[in-house]
Specification:
The complex is a heterodimer of chains A (about 325) and B (about 270).
Chain A (H helix, E strand, L loop, with lengths): L2 H4 L9 E4 L2 E5 L10 E5 L6 H8 L11 E2 L2 E2 L4 H7 E5 L11 H11 L7 H11 L15 H13 L5 E5 L7 H16 L3 E6 L2 H7 L2 E6 L2 E6 L1 H6 L5 E8 L3 H9 L3 E9 L2 E8 L5 H8 L4 E8 L3 H9 L3
Helix pairs in contact in A: 4-5, 5-6
Chain B lengths: L11 H19 L5 H26 L4 H11 L1 H14 L1 H4 L2 H5 L5 H7 L1 H22 L9 H28 L3 H15 L11 H7 L5 H11 L4 H36 L6
Helix pairs in contact in B: 1-7, 1-8, 2-3, 2-8, 3-8, 3-12, 4-8, 4-9, 4-10, 7-13, 8-9, 9-10, 9-12, 9-13, 12-13
Classes of the chains: A alpha/beta (about 325), B mainly alpha (about 270).
The complex binds adenosine-5'-diphosphate and magnesium ion (MG).
Chain lengths: ~325, ~270
């Protein structure tokens, strides 16, 4: 309402969380604008959940400050809690023995919703996540996707201006995940500020205007998906589809001059090896030499994608 | 702030709604023995057999009166709900990983915490009443009708103090895995220590001292005075002591919960339940 509250600032400055010598988050500075859909992208163990939990007032920073809508998440925790929704992935976090309606009802009470509007509001959020009509069923029998949508509904109950999603599509089947993503992007259209963590490249790419890549507790890059791609625009990627490439051969690939990173993915029985390098002119030839005696289905060069940028960033390339 | 929140999360209306409605919902969510298939055997049948077992054992061995065992066991069986039920109603949050979402709300913590106690207390009260009723029907237990209101009050207070004690176990269960091992020990310890089957006077001094701080001890003492027709006046001090013990346990349990909440925020212990 006042000028002060109009800037939404999230500054997680120089945090240090030490536990068992684990520094989960090591100095993150971030500012997310109001109405933005921001992606925090990083591999498992990068410190995404730790960061989100600090923002949600569930975890204190070892040092640094966390502000949400100008409010301090440490000292004004209760004020912050009123204004945020917290949604995490995974199939826990709901009362299995209760119906979807009762799960939401409990949280409606905890968020002190207007008792006269409670029923209607629960209906609305269930509707918005496409769960209307089945609210009397026990959560026990719900699929992962249904649970995730119920999680989402819970995060929306009190209509918070800021929402935090921690890997919301983890373990959800592709169709369900797509619906969850649609719901999240719909929130932005309704003016919500959203911070989303994910380890899926394409998810961040398709949803977020801005992304920060987090690796080992530090932001290693941030910007729009396009910015991140341009960081690797001087590279090319050689992709090889082959059968039976051993570890020693991969190790030797990594040693080749100009090679930034080598990653392997298994596709059916074949391996797809992506080799990123700054100098591709002689690379294909050198790779073929290394791969003598291996059955190579296909070899080709392509432009780097956001995924390659991400791989390069988190592997320190 | 949300336009939907009509009542302030700090207001009295919020407190009572979370305490009563929230408490009932979470009880249904977390108390395992709520469906008849579990409720009847665990909350009615097993306690009943416990009463019968000790009454007949007492008769066979020629020790204690029927009233001694009926009162002791009928009152003690409310701890089935108080001890196990309350442990579940708090520490099962762990299993569902619902603690984080709850702590992320601005809700009144005292209401969240204590609200879980009321349905457990009522369940325990029912169990004991059932115990007395069946004892009256098949064991010939006949308390003086004039003492009944005070006896009911005693039962209510004792069910409450067991609930307070169970709350402490529930809080511990938020931190400690396998808290039910402790609850098991607690259930059988009170059977021995609190004068349920063995008169306090026959226990070693240290144990007798310990019993003063546990639920049931004073409640059972009051119950026996009332059953013996000694009048409400004689039982009052014991009832008040039982109430005090229960309140202390509940207060301790709540402080422990808040301590875990705070230290959890500091150390991240709740992330990895
Ligand atoms: N409660 C905790 N106690 C100790 N270490 C933790 C705790 N939570 C996370 N960690 C560690 O901190 C690091 C970052 O974890 P996390 O924030 O969960 O990463 P992400 O969500 O990106 O997968 C990991 O090494 C993890 O093992
Ligand atoms: Mg995580």
């Amino acid at each position: 309402m006042r000028g002060l509250h109009r800037t939404y600032r999230t500054t997680v400055g120089t945090l240090r969380r030490r536990r068992l010598e684990v520094e989960a988050v090591r100095g993150i500075d971030l500012e997310i604008g109001r109405g933005e859909l921001f992606g925090l992208l990083g591999p498992n163990g990068a410190g995404k959940t730790t960061t989100i939990r600090m923002l949600c007032t569930l975890l204190l920073p070892t040092s640094g400050t966390v502000r949400v809508l100008g409010l301090d998440a440490v000292t004004q925790a209760r004020e912050v809690r009123r204004r945020i929704g917290y949604v995490f992935g995974g199939d826990r976090g709901l009362y299995d023995r209760l119906s979807a309606y009762d799960n939401l009802r409990y949280f409606a009470e905890l968020y002190a919703l207007d008792p006269r509007r409670m029923r209607a509001r629960i209906g609305e959020v269930l509707e918005s996540v496409g769960r209307a009509g089945r609210e009397k069923e026990r959560v026990e029998g719900f699929s992962r996707g249904m649970r995730q949508r119920l999680h989402l509904a819970r995060g929306l109950l009190h209509d918070p201006p800021v929402l935090f999603f921690d890997e919301p599509t983890i373990g959800v089947d592709p169709v369900g995940a797509r619906e969850v993503r649609q719901l999240i992007s719909g929130l932005q259209e309704r003016g919500k500020t959203v911070l989303l963590t994910t380890h899926y490249m394409f998810e961040a790419d398709s949803l977020c205007q801005r992304i920060a890549v987090i690796s080992r507790g530090r932001i290693v890059a941030s910007g729009s998906p396009r910015d991140l791609k341009s960081a690797v625009s001087d590279r090319t990627v050689v992709e090889i589809e082959a059968y039976g490439i051993g570890e020693p051969a991969l190790a030797r690939m990594r040693q080749l001059p100009g090679v930034e990173s080598v990653t392997v993915e298994n596709k059916d029985q074949a391996q797809v090896v992506s080799v990123q390098s700054r100098d591709s002119v002689q690379l294909t030839g050198r790779l073929m030499e290394l791969l003598q005696g291996v059955r190579v289905e296909r070899i080709g060069t392509r432009e780097p994608t956001l995924e390659d940028a991400y791989v390069a960033l988190v592997t320190g390339g | 702030m949300s336009a939907l929140a009509a009542t302030e999360a700090g207001s009295r209306g919020h407190f009572w709604r979370v305490f009563l409605i929230g408490g009932l919902i979470s009880y249904r969510a977390l108390f395992y023995w709520i469906n008849p298939w579990q409720y009847v055997p665990t909350m009615l049948a097993a306690p009943l057999f416990q009463i019968l077992f000790f009454v007949y054992l007492g008769r066979a061995a020629g020790v204690g009166s029927t009233a001694f065992f009926v009162v002791g066991n009928s009152i003690q069986i409310c701890s089935m709900s108080g001890i196990y039920g309350m442990t579940m109603a708090i520490s099962n949050e762990r299993q569902f990983q619902t603690l984080s979402p709850i702590l992320a709300t601005p809700s009144n913590r005292l209401a969240v915490f204590l609200g879980r106690g009321l349905p457990v207390l009522i369940t325990g009260f029912q169990t004991t009443c059932f115990g007395f009723l069946v004892s009256a029907l098949i064991l010939g237990f006949r308390p003086a009708p004039a003492e009944l209101p005070m006896l009911l009050l005693t039962v209510l207070v004792t069910a409450g103090s067991c609930t307070g004690f169970g709350m402490a176990l529930g809080s511990v269960g938020l931190r400690v895995r396998d808290v039910f091992l402790i609850s098991n020990i607690a259930y059988f310890a009170v059977l021995l220590v609190c004068g349920v089957e063995v008169p306090l006077s026959q226990l070693p001094g240290a144990v007798r001292g310990l019993a003063q701080f546990l639920p049931l001890t004073h409640g059972i003492a009051a119950g026996r005075l009332l059953a013996a027709g000694r009048g409400g006046g004689a039982a009052v001090s014991d009832i008040l002591l039982e109430l005090l013990v229960g309140c202390c346990w509940a207060a301790f349990a709540y402080l422990l919960f808040r301590h875990f909440e705070r230290s959890g925020r500091r150390t991240g212990a709740f992330d990895r339940l």
